[in-house]
Write a structure and sequence with these properties.
This protein is α/β, with parallel strands linked by helices. The protein contains six helices and seven strands. Bound molecules: NADP nicotinamide-adenine-dinucleotide phosphate.
Length: 199
């Protein structure tokens, strides 16, 4: 398959890129910097330009998206907007603007996270954005058939504990390769409207 992978230079994106290539897929790697294809998912014009460059693809994976982390009483209107633009609307726009570029029975696989269902202190903006993406996936799948739409929702990844261990005390981490397998299931399988929760 010809697969567009957004966030390809990150921890998750790097592992996905390697595994997809090992499985014989052609991977088009995209992010804001350091990949063959430029895109900023918070900027619709760059998403449109990306699809114009890639042409038709069989699958789109998004492993990008960030949100602010602050105590609830410090989160501003702009913080929520920033989180929503970068994690929720960015991924929604990847689907919205990419529907005509994805092959019949092709797929979009978005990325959310455990904070949609198991919040932590400081995660209100992140939890809201992740929850929005999961609700979108379930609703969009009703109307995109035969194109499929899923999300992968991991807990903290073992290989990211150096960055996030302090935020997730007592949370059992999930190995990166187990997370990668959920994307393989979404891309190579037949399911749609699913949120694959890990942890
Ligand atoms: N790591 C974890 O434990 C964990 C757990 C659950 C969920 N997640 C979610 O999984 C996703 C990936 O996590 P990660 O740890 O792999 O992150 P990461 O290492 O920081 O990588 C993020 C990737 O996304 C790209 N990116 C960031 N903002 C972008 C934008 N606006 N437009 C296009 N590309 C953008 C980055 O490259 P550029 O900066 O060059 O654009 C990079 O390639 C995130 O949504 C994260 O919330 C991660």
């Amino acid at each position: 398959m010809k697969i567009l992978l957004v966030g390809a230079s990150g921890l998750l994106g790097g592992a996905l890129s390697a595994t997809l290539a090992q499985r014989g897929h052609q991977v088009l790697r995209a992010s804001r910097r350091h990949t063959g294809h430029h895109v900023d998912i918070s900027d619709c014009a760059t998403i449109t330009a990306l699809y114009e460059r890639t042409g038709a693809v069989d699958a789109v994976i998004c492993a990008a998206g960030s949100t602010p982390y602050k105590p609830l009483h410090q989160l501003t209107h702009d913080d929520y907007l920033t989180g929503f633009h970068n994690k929720a609307l960015g991924q929604i726009d990847l689907v919205r603007l990419g529907l005509r570029s994805v092959a019949p029975r092709g797929s979009f696989t978005l990325t959310t996270g455990i904070l949609a269902r198991e919040p932590i202190v400081t995660s209100a903006a992140a939890s809201a954005a992740n929850g929005a993406v999961e609700a979108f996936v379930r609703a969009a799948a009703l109307e995109t058939a035969p194109v499929r739409v899923n999300a992968v929702s991991p807990t903290v990844i073992t290989e990211a504990l150096d960055r996030y261990a302090d935020f997730f005390p007592g949370f059992e981490p999930v190995p990166l390769q187990k997370v990668v397998q959920a994307y393989i299931r979404s891309v190579e399988g037949a399911e749609t409207g699913r949120v694959f929760a890990l942890g």
